[in-house]
């Protein structure tokens, strides 16, 4: 709710949602803001809730620069019909997971985790187990 209030106060337009759901728990309606600027809290921080910020852009290079200009890098979503452009985004985005034409499709066999300040290491898949390994190397010269 703090982020939703911040978005309104900083000048973003609340298009949908923004209210609590029910009297118990910590649930909010799916929320969408438009007219979001890069320096607004709802654009710079990781909000772990159903809050979407819509930012306008002029060209591809601007999108990549702005998307990577953050201390966070958990995940990104790209919607396109152009698979070549999607793969270019995937290669250039500084995030741990990129969903193309989908979002939040977490699969237990695949590693999940972020870049920069969005976590340490990976969860899930074989990469998620590496923190628990105790590896020992033994070299024996036989004479």
What does this structure look like?
The termini are far apart. This protein has 2 domains: 1-56, no CATH class; 58-143, Aldehyde Dehydrogenase, Chain A, domain 2. Strand 5 (75-78), helix 4 (83-92) and strand 6 form a beta-alpha-beta unit. The strands form 3 sheets. A 3-stranded mixed β-sheet has the order 1-2-3, covered by helices on one side. The protein has a two-stranded antiparallel ribbon with strand order 4-7. The longest helix is centred in the middle third of the chain and has 10 residues, at 83-92. The protein has 5 helices and 7 strands. The model has no long low-confidence stretch (mean pLDDT 88). The chain is of the alpha/beta class and 143 residues long.
CATH class of the largest domain: Alpha Beta
Helix content: 25-40%
Cα distance spanning the termini: 71 Å
The chain-level mean pLDDT equals 88
Strand order of the largest sheet: 1-2-3
Task: Tell me the structural class.
Answer: alpha/beta
By CATH, the architecture of the largest domain is named 3-Layer(aba) Sandwich
At the fourth CATH level, what is the homologous superfamily of the largest domain?
Answer: Aldehyde Dehydrogenase, Chain A, domain 2
Number of helices: 5
Indicate the multimeric state. Answer: single chain
Main beta sheet = 3 strands, mixed
The CATH topology annotation of the largest domain reads as Aldehyde Dehydrogenase, Chain A, domain 2
